[in-house]
Structure formats: C-alpha cells, structure tokens
Design goal:
With about 500 residues, the protein is mainly alpha-helical. The protein has 19 helices and seven strands. The strands form three sheets. Strands 1-2-3 form a three-stranded antiparallel β-sheet. Strands 4-5 form a two-stranded antiparallel ribbon. It has a two-stranded antiparallel sheet with strand order 6-7.
C-alpha cells in the first residue's frame, strides 16, 4: 500500500464517536470491532462457557492424563506457552520451567514442530482457517459432511459449530501433543492406528471418560439441555464446541488503545503510535497482509521465516539422515503440505497482530523472541534469513529423548544412546545451517525489501503496542481451583 493512499494522518486522528462503526478514513476495512463480529454475537451460553473452561484446564483429555489444552495455551503466557517450540506430552511444568524427567513417562520423542499460537479473537467469525498451515477451515462447497475441511476429511463428525471447535478435535489425537505414545494408553493406541472417529477411536474414548465423571455429566446436561439427557449422549463434538465457546469468550481482546481510537477516543493512542500506524499501513507495507479488523488477511504467504526444530517431515532431503543415521527429513512446507501445490511451499497463515507484544515467540517455528527482530525480518526477509542464528531462539534443552525400537514384531520405547542423542539435537538448527535448504526457503519469499530508519522502526513497534488490550494481561483469574476429574490444575 502506497503511503499516499493513507490520507493525511490528521484525518484518521479526527475520528468522531458517532462514526465508530464506519471504516476509518484512509484505513479500508478498519471499522471498530463489536459483538456482531463474533459467533453467537459474542454471548455464548454461560453454562457452555463454564463447561469449556473446565475441559480446557483438565488433563482428562490427554491420553496419559498429564497435559491439558492450557499447558500450551496458558493464561500466564498470554494463551500460548512462552516457548519457541513446545515440549508436549510427558514433561512437567509450564513455559521455560517445562522439563523432561528421568522416567520414560516424563520423556519426549522430540519437540512439537511448530510454535504454539495465541488464541486471541479466534471466536470472531472471520477466522475461517486455523493452524499455521490452515489445515482446518470452513467448507463452503460442502465437500465433507462434517462441515469443515480437516485432516479427518469425510470422517469428521457432524455437529461442530465453527472452525475453532473443529480445531479442538485434533490436538487430542496427536501423539506428541496430548495422546501419548503407542503402548502407553488406549487413546495413544487408537491414535497410532489413525483411528480418531471410529469405534473405540480417540474421540469415542475421550467421551467415555467424560461420561464416567458425574460432575461432567451434570455440566453437559446444563450446557446442552436438548442434546444431553443421559451420560451416553455426551460426545467429544459437544466437548469441542464447549472448549471453543470458552476460548472465544476468555480470549476476546478488542479494547486496545487502537480499538478505543477507532471508537472515537482520539487520545487513546500516543502520537508515536499514530505515526507508526501511518507507516504500518503506508510506507512499511505491513497492511498489505496484516489487514482488516484483526490485522490479518487470513491468507498464506512465504516471507523467508527461519525454520528451527524438527519440521514436519516434508520433502525428501536425506542430508540429516545420512549424517546422523536417524531416519528423518526436516523441512516444513507449510501451506504446501495441505494443498500439495509446490507454489504453496513455505507459505504460512498471516497471524493476527492483536496482543502481539505479549505473544513471543514469533514465526511458525518460534524463531524470533524479540519483537524488533521479527519486525526487521519483514523489512528484508532474505538477508535476515541468511543472518539468522538458531542459537538466539533459546530453545530449552530436551533432556533425555526416547525412540521407538523394534524387537521382533513388537515396538518398545528406549532412551537414545549418547551418540544418537547428540545427532538428534542437531535437528534444531539443521535446516537453517544447511545452505541448500535455507536457500529453498529464501527463494519462495514474496516480500520486497523496505527501507525504514531506526526511528521509524520504533514507531511501527509503538503502533503494535497500541494493539495490546491491557485486560489480556490479567487472565489468570480464569484458572479454576479444581476440575471435575480431580486431576491437578496447572497454575
């Protein structure tokens, strides 16, 4: 967007209260956010929200009963986990205190390959594609009976109310995130057989757990009086709908200085932030992708963002395998692994920038942990990628790592030997430190370099700060003292 198109900044500053719902002059599409932007007009049933709150914090939804949704989307970490890449099922603790233990049950088979995204405003109806690669999205053409395009395809059950609820169906089915490893529990075994929706599948087994807890049965009856008359009526679809209702309510954030500015409070934003806004939507070109009410076009773009960690096993580069003897390929094709189109490789969903100052680390793999660095990356992506040092990501140590080992016709978990552990840890920086793989990411870049003075960079950052809803810094009150399963709550 050319800076001449923004109109004089004074025109934006002069918004009147009576024009609060009209688009801001010179800022197309930037009407103030209101209840109508959200599912159920921003007012879902309080009983459903409370049920979702309990489920969100309850470890009962994990195979080994040791991790909850909140572990990786915790209020203390602004609905994320404070890490570049999560340590999923197994370890104990939160954020940078999360560590593996000496027992196999407290170990990991590796890092979760992508950064844990924040949940702010995902209850707004315009968020129709979720996950970094958009693998859960609305299905306007009606290809699948479940109503959404997801990894489950035609097996997705009916009755999910929105994409956020559809998204909640999948972390529980991931061995690394919540299900656990084959042989550890029945849910992990079902997941290993790719049985999420079938008889004795992941979703059915989780529903049975909830059916066996009287307090949950009563909560489901209150939240769904027409659907749930007896314990056997409880389904994981209803649980996912409740979790989505809670997330949409608890993590709604639309009272930032920017929001108040759009609603007519001309003093809500500082002069520096207003200047940064003009740069953001003008000279800096940020608004080309970070557009609309929530600063996202909901599309997918390749911007040469560094990849750290194990990737998603895309491509066929065998250099790591050849060097370490560990059978893995480490690229992450992003949107390309969903569409199977080469031109979509290394594209990732444009994130909303609401509360962006609070949601480090940034990038699909959490490569950046300070906001100025990620802003500067956008100004010159290819050179930034070339200079990026994976050591700056501050990935927490993995501790001991386990692998599945074949013995005859059975598989067992065993610790990696010291030599294999050393090779395993090379995954974290392999793609970035391999010129051929790094150059593939650079070649897909869509952004032209933009020259900003240091002062202008700070002004843009000031505008990003104006997108922060201060209420989002006081989220810990949503943490329940206890959950119906009786399992510990992480606070």
């Amino acid at each position: 967007m050319n800076s001449s198109n923004i109109l004089p900044l004074i025109a934006v500053v002069g918004l009147a209260t009576g024009a609060a719902q009209a688009a801001a002059p010179g800022l197309p599409g930037l009407a103030a956010v209101n209840d109508s932007d959200y599912y159920e007009i921003g007012q879902p049933s309080t009983d459903k929200v409370e049920l979702g709150r309990m489920l969100f914090f309850d470890r009962i939804l994990s195979g080994n009963r040791n991790i909850s949704c909140a572990t990786c989307h915790h209020p203390a970490f602004s609905s994320a986990d404070g890490l570049a890449l999560p340590l999923g099922e197994g370890p104990r603790g939160l954020g940078t205190d999360r560590q593996t233990g000496e027992a196999l049950a407290e170990s990991v088979a590796g890092r979760v390959p992508r950064n844990s995204p924040a949940l702010f405003n995902l209850g707004a109806a315009e968020f129709e594609k979720l996950f970094h690669d958009g693998r859960v999205e609305t299905d306007p053409q009606g290809y699948f009976a479940g109503g959404f395009i997801t990894p489950a395809k035609w097996k997705l059950p009916r009755g999910l109310e929105n994409p956020l609820a559809a998204q909640a169906m999948f972390p529980v089915n991931s061995a690394a995130e919540m299900a656990g490893s084959k042989g550890e529990n029945a849910i992990a075994d079902a997941s290993s057989l790719n049985n999420a929706a079938g008889r004795n599948g992941v979703w059915e087994l989780l529903a049975r757990r909830l059916q066996d807890i009287p307090a949950y049965v009563e909560m489901f009856k209150r939240a769904y009086p027409d659907e749930v008359r007896r314990d056997s009526d409880i389904s994981y679809v209803l649980a996912a709908n409740a979790i989505a209702a809670f997330e949409a309510t608890a993590f709604r954030a639309d009272n930032s200085p920017f929001d108040r500015f759009l609603r007519g409070d001309r003093n809500a934003m500082t002069r520096t932030a207003r200047t940064g806004m003009a740069l953001f939507y003008g000279k800096a070109g940020c608004g080309g992708c970070h557009s609309g009410k929530f600063q996202t076009d909901h599309d997918f773009h390749a911007i040469a963002m560094p990849q750290i960690g194990p990737g998603k096993s895309d491509g066929n580069d065998a250099s790591y395998w050849n060097a370490t003897g560990i059978s893995a390929v480490l690229e992450d094709f992003g949107r390309g692994r969903v569409t199977f189109r080469e031109e979509d490789n290394f594209k990732f969903r444009t994130p909303s920038l609401r509360n962006v100052t609070m949601t480090a680390h940034w990038g699909h793999a959490g490569a950046y942990n300070d906001l100025e660095s990620v802003v500067r990356h956008h100004l010159d992506p290819e050179n930034s990628l070339e200079r990026y040092d994976p050591a700056t990501a501050n990935l927490p140590p993995l501790g001991e790592v386990v692998e599945l080992t074949a013995s005859g016709s059975s598989l067992s978990q065993n610790w990696l030997s010291d030599s294999r552990q050393e090779g395993f840890e090379m995954q974290d920086a392999w793609v970035q430190n391999t010129p051929r793989l790094r150059h593939r990411i650079a070649a897909a870049n869509e952004l032209e370099p933009v020259s900003l003075a240091d002062r202008e960079v700070q002004q843009v950052i000031a505008f990003l700060g104006a997108l922060t809803d201060q209420d989002a810094q006081r989220l810990n009150a949503m943490i329940p003292a206890a959950v119906p399963s009786g399992l510990p709550v992480e606070d």
